[in-house]
Every structure is written in structure tokens, then in C-alpha cells.
Design a protein that fits this description.
Blueprint (H helix, E strand, L loop, with lengths): L7 E4 L5 H12 L2 H13 L12 H13 L8 E8 L4 E7 L4 H7 L8 E4 L9 H12 L2 E3 L9 H10 L4 E3 L2 H14 L8 E6 L4 H10 L4 E8 L3 E6 L7 E4 L3 E6 L2 E6 L11 E10 L9 E7 L3 E4 L2 E4 H9 L4 E9 L7 E8 L7 H14 L3 H4 L7 E5 L6
Parallel strand pairs: 4-5, 4-6, 6-7, 7-8, 18-19
Antiparallel strand pairs: 1-11, 2-3, 8-9, 9-10, 10-14, 11-12, 12-13, 13-14, 15-16, 17-18
Helix pairs in contact: 1-2, 4-5, 7-8
Length: 396
């Protein structure tokens, strides 16, 4: 990984000319990207960095148009949905192996003799559940693929999972936070949990403090990624929590502080060509002593919301709210991020003459939940975590 002082810096080994050619050939196979990359593919550039970055909107349109045109056929791929609406979903195509073998060679939190308690959510928010099960199988350990428990069941399940022999836990951030908070309030310390796996953008400060209090001796392993990018980088118990080491098949750049990713794996289906993740970061040395710097994830751009372990485009939520006839404008914001009271708030302003009352707010809420692919799952078990409020009308 080289640190550069110009407008961008690139992580991992420089892509080879054959890797760039394969990536461009993959991109032009998607109708929505053919025009963008056909000229570059014909010229066979060896330097990936001369290509224009790929935006989230471009990738979304390209993947979905490719799926509708039959690109998923005969690929041995799995289609995962990460957000958006039924009309314009955010989706990715991943080989059926889920890149699990490549990930496991770089990131090995599990070993024979472990029993993985998999409380991660299922496929729609992003397929952490499937990936963790695959990693357990490759590691030669057993798994309890339980899924997300109801908060009211946590007290009973803590004892039950101990009786099952669980030694490792995989959980999304809201589930992990609820479990740790329950243990803190009840004074329980599940010492049988020796290993923790989490996947996403990063542990927020409040959850990290709970973890240090409730499970001070647990080895913590993190995998950074999203539905669109899959796994980008990883860290382990000796790493800083917010610093990740890019996987060998993920080429990482920083452009104006934003993290860009290109997937170079020969089995990749989705064409990630300098994809704009919406995350901001910097290259940083890691306490683990790795010879190459890792990527410190600092936050998200203004267009991306992180809510209950999922990522949403601010614009897609605003557009859904504004599609209601009585709504003139809307704004989306996450309040109390990282706390048990974290909630997503949509503030709507009505058109002239429309009543901005509780009935309208409830109707907007139901319309957004009905048309968004993953928001309903994100607030499952915590319906009050998503609210619609009427904004004050500006004075004349």
C-alpha cells in the first residue's frame, strides 16, 4: 500500500493490466455501464486511476438493468438487496461462494472447537448471516444460525445459548447493543463468549464502551463492507477498531477523503470500478504492527445515513416521502446515533392547504415503509425507531 501526497492514495498492490482489462470487460457487459467504459476497455489502460469513479446511483441502475436483462442467468450468483425501492433497488450479484474462502484466508476469527452463535440479520439488509455461516463451515467449527432474537427473549436466551456451548458471537450492531445492555443492566457477564464477530462500517462509541464493560476479555474481529462492495477490509483483536486492512482482491483509494473500491477478484460479477462508497477515511498505521497502513474509516458523506446497522441513501428516503401528494419537501436525519434511543426521523413539509397533522405523518410513514425494500426490516422489533414529523411552516 502506498501513501501519496496528491489528490488520492491507493491501497493494496497496484492492479495489473490483465486485472484492469478483466474489470472493464465485466463493466461493459452491463448495459448501464457500457457507454461509460467502452472506450476505456477498447484502449486497455493499465492505470485504473485514470477512470472516472462510479457513483452509487450509476451502480444501482446498472446492476438492476442487468438483472432485468438476464445477466443473473448461468452465473451461479446470489442476488442480494441492500436498500432502495422496488422500482429502483440497490442490489449486488455475488458468486455463490460469497468470497468466503478469500475472506477466511485473510480474516480467521474462528477455529475448530468453536461454536458460532450467529445472531446476524438475514439477507436483505446485507447478507452477514450467510457469510458468517460460510466462514464457520470453512473454519471447521459448528454454528447456531439463530438469527435476530426479540429483545424480550434475551434474558432467557443468554442461558440457553450457553447451554448450547456457544463460544463465539456474530451479531449486527442493534442486536449486539441490546444484548450488551441487557447484560449490563442485569449484571450478567457471559464469559463463555470468547470471540465476537461484527460486520459493517464500525462499532460506534457507545457500543464499544458496552463491549469493554460486559465482555472485557473477548477477542473482537471486524469486517468492513456493505451490500454493494461486499467485504472491503478486516481487523482483529490487536488492531484499532476503526482501522481495516484491505482484502487482497479489493483495491482501495482515497479521493478527496472518500473511500473508493475496485473489486479485482476473477469471480466477481458486479462491476465495482472505483466505486464511491460514501464513507470517508484516511490511511493510518495500525497497532497490530502490519507492515502496510490500514484504512481508518472516519464517517459517511452527507448523502449516506447509517441507521441500526444498515445504510440508506438520504435522497431515496426523501423521494419516497415527497411522492405523497400532500408533501412538498422532506428531510431525513438519524437522531441519537449509536445510542439505544437511535431513531430515523423524516421531517415533512406539506403543500399549501394540506393539513400537517398526525394522520398525514402516519400515512407518509406507512407509504415509505411499504415501498422501501429494507427499512421495515431495520426497524423490526423497534417500530418507534422510525418516525415522521411535520416540519414547521416558515413564517411569511
Amino acid at each position: 500500500m502506498s501513501l501519496q501526497t496528491g489528490g488520492f492514495a491507493a491501497g493494496a498492490a497496484e492492479p495489473t493490466a490483465p486485472q484492469v482489462r478483466a474489470l472493464l470487460d465485466r463493466a461493459v457487459g452491463f448495459p448501464g455501464l457500457a457507454e461509460k467504459y467502452r472506450g476505456a476497455a477498447g484502449g486497455r489502460p493499465a492505470d485504473l486511476r485514470v477512470l472516472d469513479p462510479l457513483s452509487a446511483d450509476e451502480l444501482r441502475a446498472a446492476v438492476w438493468s442487468g438483472v432485468r436483462d438476464g445477466l443473473a442467468k448461468d452465473r451461479g450468483a446470489v442476488l442480494y438487496l441492500g436498500g432502495g425501492t422496488t422500482a429502483e433497488p440497490s442490489a449486488t450479484l455475488v458468486p455463490s461462494c460469497l468470497f468466503a474462502g478469500d475472506i477466511q484466508r485473510a480474516w480467521s476469527p474462528l477455529a475448530p472447537g468453536d461454536v458460532l452463535l450467529n445472531l446476524s440479520r438475514g439477507t436483505r439488509l446485507w447478507p452477514v448471516h450467510d457469510l458468517c455461516n460460510a466462514l464457520a463451515a470453512l473454519s471447521g467449527c459448528s454454528a447456531i444460525p439463530y438469527g435476530t432474537p426479540d429483545t424480550d427473549d434475551l434474558g432467557r436466551l443468554v442461558d440457553f445459548f450457553e447451554q448450547c456451548g456457544a463460544t463465539a458471537l456474530a451479531a449486527d450492531t442493534p442486536t449486539l447493543r441490546a444484548l450488551l445492555e441487557h447484560c449490563r443492566l442485569t449484571g450478567r457477564r457471559p464469559a463463555w463468549l470468547r470471540t465476537l464477530l461484527w460486520v459493517g462500517v464500525g462499532l460506534d462509541g457507545a457500543t464499544a464502551r458496552l463491549l469493554a464493560e460486559v465482555l472485557p476479555d473477548a477477542a473482537v474481529w471486524g469486517l468492513y463492507g456493505s451490500v454493494e462492495t461486499w467485504a472491503i477490509g478486516c481487523n482483529g483483536p490487536r488492531c484499532a477498531r476503526d482501522v481495516f486492512h484491505p482484502l487482497p482482491h479489493q483495491y482501495v483509494e482515497l479521493v478527496d477523503g472518500e473511500i473508493l473500491v475496485s473489486t479485482l477478484h476473477e469471480l466477481a460479477v458486479t462491476p465495482l470500478v472505483r466505486y464511491r462508497t460514501g464513507d470517508t477515511g484516511e490511511f493510518a498505521d495500525c497497532p497490530c504492527g502490519a507492515p502496510q497502513p490500514g484504512v481508518r474509516v472516519r464517517g459517511r458523506s452527507a448523502d449516506v445515513l447509517s441507521f441500526r446497522g444498515a445504510r440508506f441513501g438520504r435522497a431515496e428516503l426523501v423521494a419516497l416521502a415527497a411522492s405523497v401528494e400532500e408533501v412538498a419537501a422532506a428531510e431525513a436525519e438519524v437522531l441519537d446515533a449509536g445510542l439505544p434511543t437511535e431513531r430515523l426521523q423524516l421531517s415533512v413539509r406539506t403543500v399549501a392547504g394540506a393539513a400537517s397533522d398526525r394522520y398525514l405523518c402516519d400515512w407518509v410513514r406507512e407509504c415509505v415503509l411499504a415501498r422501501h425494500l429494507t427499512l421495515r426490516q431495520a426497524v423490526a422489533g423497534a417500530p418507534d425507531a422510525f418516525e415522521v414529523v411535520a416540519a414547521a411552516v416558515p413564517a411569511a
